Amino acid sequence: MKKVGFMSLVLGSVMCWLGCSPAKQMPEGELVSIEYSTNTCRAENQYEGSVQRDSAGRFVVHSMKKNYGPLYEKVIGASQMKRFREIIEEEKMYRYKESYQPRLHVLDGWGWHFCARFSDGSKILSGGSNARPDGNGLARIRSYMEELVSDGVLVEAADSIDND
Fold first, then answer.
1. DSSP letter string over the chain?
2. Which site among 45, 84, 105, 137 is 20 to 30 Å from 115 CA-CA?
3. Is the CB of residue 75 less than 8 Å from the CB of residue 59?
4. What pTM, to 2 d.p., does this model score?
């Protein structure tokens, strides 16, 4: 048993020395809000979507249905919030780095921002410029937001045309 303890101590010291940290874990709390947006060189967001609690305590999703489109809103329930949480867990989005950047210097291009907050006070905050994490998490979050507002109410008209 002493050998195992010594080896754990050595391994932990080496990991600390190399700057490694334990794998990030999925937050324990319930998902209470989520935001995702993408942008390009244009002044307005290419896409934006979010779910927040309103003053009555209901979850309200605000999302575009297409790039540079207007915002729609819809009240959703706890089951839809659980689905967002499942996507985050299935895609291991809790392992996202805080920032994604390309290896080469890029002066033009695109960017994105993602934030998920949980009832235990933890959050996942990530973003990038001309680089993104592996997997389909961001696309699945966006797709689900768009699906939820498919029969939503228009809240903000867009002045620009669709430039997918």
1. -HHHHHHHHHHHHHHHHHT--PPP---SSPEEEEEEEEE-SSSS-SEEEEEEE-TTS-EEEEEESSTT--EEEEEE-HHHHHHHHHHHHHTTGGG--SEE--SS--SS--EEEEEEEETTS-EEEEEEES---SSSHHHHHHHHHHHHTTT-EEEE--SS----
2. 105
3. yes
4. 0.80
